[in-house]
Amino acid sequence: MAITAADLLPAARALGPSLAERSERIEATRTLPDDVVADLRDAGLFRLLTPTDLGGPEADVATAADVIAEVARHDGGAAWCVMIAGTTTLQAGFLPLDVADLVFGAPDSCAGGYAAPVGRAVPVDGGLRVTGTWAWGSGTRHCTWIGGGTRIVDADGKPTRRDDGLFAPFVFFDRDDVEHLDTWHVTGLSGSGSADYRVEDAFVPEGRWLQMMDATPRLDGPTWRFPFYGMLAIGIAAVSIGLLDGAVDRFAELASAKKPEGSGRTLAERGSAQTVLSTAEATARSSRAFLHDAIGAAWTTAEAGDPLTTEHRRSLRLAACDAAQRCADALTALGREAGGAAVYLREPLQRMVRDGQVAATHAMVAPRIHELTGRLHLGLETDTTLL
Predict the structure, then answer these.
(1) Is residue 344 part of a domain?
(2) What pLDDT, on a 0 to 100 scale, did the predictor assign at position 130?
(3) Which of 1, 121, 234, 274 has its CA 20 to 30 A from that of 249?
(4) Is residue 297 part of a domain?
(5) Within 13 Å and on the Cβ side, how many CA atoms surround 219?
(6) How many Cβ atoms are within 10 Å of 120's Cβ, its own excluded?
(7) Same structural domain for residues 298 and 270?
(8) Which helix (H) or strand (E) holds 255?
(9) In this predicted structure, what is the pLDDT of residue 260?
């Protein structure tokens, strides 16, 4: 039986506790263990936006964000991989049907990769020859298809365009052409397996790519009117919100049981702990509300068949950046208030804190996004290519 959009959030909730039980192993492995991959795949959580014409659930954007946040409540690394695979499925509505079916049509499909055009692609008969190394290859070890952003170059290595206008395609490699590098030794989101990967003179057949900057959707529907980079930012914000949700719950458990050194009262009885907890809860809830407000306004426009305006896109990025940065700060405050109990690696709270700091460094939600959204609010001339 096919997994529907309505199945996704209940599946994430059901799977969550077992992910939390495996979090230490996920982090130590530095990529998702096979059993975790199997569980996420069986639940359909790698195929969030995959169109129904390819057997996917084709979730709406708000549901996809809620699913990602629910996974993050229990494990950040797993949520990050769900986010990367889930946002990558947006491409399925833009690729020609034969390519979309090849990459996203299988029930166990899972695609990912780094979109920045750092690879070199040389036009040859029947396609492209690609060489490059990409960082941030989140979840690529378990992906069925691995992509990479490229730049078309001539025989001398100089940037150029094909006659059809192709200049910066995101291409899909055969798994056997990809070499995974052991570079992911990090402070947070260790379980996401976001290591470097590379290909050397890999052949990519004609059309097995998407040029995101000027792609026209194959399908008609509100999901396919959302911007690629905006969708990625929404997913990252959802991870941040979910991490803070989980940290609030965990802090409450710790505070009720812990008596700080030299104190006769539990941490829960301290005014500072009450304030930090309440502030963190408000941050998670307000971040979610702002994000859903921006998604809802954009969805209403898209559902009416209209393209999203620059203001819709600006609001999506503003809400996503705000969520990631404020949640990271709230996580830090919870970790500090928890005191010595939170420094042990066996304590889940410290992992949530570290994961949140790493999530907030992503380029799609980094503090500099406020410069972009601020310039637009002021009516200044602004490069909106990546909006």
Answers:
(1) yes
(2) 98
(3) 234
(4) yes
(5) 22
(6) 17
(7) yes
(8) helix 228-257
(9) 67
Q: H or E segment at 308?
A: none
183 CB-contact burial (10 Å; exposed 0-12 / middle 13-18 / buried 19+): middle
Q: Which residues of 209-238 are buried (b: 16+ CB within 10 A; e: fewer)?
A: bbbbeebeebbeebbbbbbbbbbbbbbbbb
Look up residue 100 and give its two tokens: 């979309």
State the Cα–Cα distance between residues 71 and 14, nearest whole angstrom.
10
Residue 263 has pLDDT above 70, yes or no: no
- One-letter amino acid identity for 238? A
Token pair in block for residue 351? 């992992």
The rounded mean pLDDT for the chain is: 96
DSSP 3-state of 355: helix
Cα 218 to its chain centre, rounded Å, is 23
Mean pLDDT of 228-256: 97
**Residues 17-42: what's their mean pLDDT?**
98
271 burial (CB, 10 Å; 0-12 / 13-18 / 19+) is exposed
* Strand partners for 122: 129
Instruction: Report the CATH number at residue 186.
Output: 2.40.110.10
Q: Summarize pLDDT for 99-112 with one digit per residue, the tens.
A: 999 999 999 999 99
The domain tally of the chain equals: 3
Q: Which tokens in the block code for residue 185?
A: 């030794």
Q: Do 346 and 232 belong to one domain?
A: yes
Distance (Å) of CA 241 to CA 70, 151, 294, 364: 9, 34, 15, 15
- Residue 47 maps to which CATH number? 1.10.540.10
pTM of this prediction?
Answer: 0.97
Quick one: average pLDDT of 282-307? 98
DSSP character for 153?
A: B
Q: Which tokens go with 269?
A: 């009885």
Asked if residue 330 is part of any domain, the answer here is yes
Tell whether 373 and 277 lie within a shared domain.
yes
Closest C-alpha to 61, from 249, 218, 296: 296
